[in-house]
From TrEMBL:
This is Large ribosomal RNA subunit accumulation protein YceD. Belongs to the DUF177 domain family. Keywords: Ribosome biogenesis. Coiled coil: none annotated. InterPro entries: YceD, YceD_bac. It comes from Alysiella crassa. PANTHER family: LARGE RIBOSOMAL RNA SUBUNIT ACCUMULATION PROTEIN YCED. GO terms for biological process: ribosome biogenesis. The lineage of its organism: Bacteria, Pseudomonadati, Pseudomonadota, Betaproteobacteria, Neisseriales.
Length: 165
């Protein structure tokens, strides 16, 4: 497995640092390789930025993007699944403050401030939340039709050819 990317979240926030990079899906924790993923050799891009919000709370802004191929749970053919996730994770010194803030705002993403934090763990968690429980094509029948059409010459083109002849 890939080396982890450790930061000191407190320093990261104070210096308003930004880190970005990309990682192959198959280098991430196996938790993210759901059996629905058709291709694990795909790049996942991330950006992490530290800052302080207007309530003076330290936060980490995380964005995770990539284009995954999942196995359609109906026809088992690959289905494209673009990932473009943004999250703000607010950091709290203790459990009480975290609980209080979470109760006041159910949209809030929070975690306890630790001495060390692994960026890739955040990326993995974000990916896991983004993955659909049961990926499916909107219309499996149409997907197959598209494929057939691409392989065959356009019938109107054939007709035009006949007329010319
Ligand atoms: Zn399908």
């Amino acid at each position: 497995m890939l080396n982890r990317i450790l930061i000191d979240p407190q320093a990261f926030v104070i210096k308003q640092e930004t880190r970005h990079g990309s990682v192959l899906l198959n280098q991430l924790d196996k938790r993210t390789w759901s059996p629905d993923i058709a291709d694990t050799a795909t790049h996942i891009h991330y950006t992490l930025t530290g800052g302080v919000d207007r309530w003076q709370r330290p936060f980490l802004d995380l964005s995770v993007s990539g284009s995954l191929k999942l196995n359609c749970q109906r026809c088992m053919n690959p289905v494209d699944f673009p990932v473009n996730e943004q999250a703000r994770i607010v950091l709290f010194d203790n459990e009480d403050k975290l609980d209080e803030a979470m109760l006041a705002d159910d949209e809030l993403d929070g975690m306890i401030l630790t001495d060390e934090l692994d960026i890739l763990t955040l990326v993995e968690d974000q990916l896991l939340m983004a993955l659909p429980i049961s990926p499916k094509h909107d219309d499996c029948g149409n997907v197959n039709l598209d494929k057939v059409n691409q392989d065959k010459p356009n019938p109107f083109g054939v007709l035009a050819g006949l007329k010319k002849g």
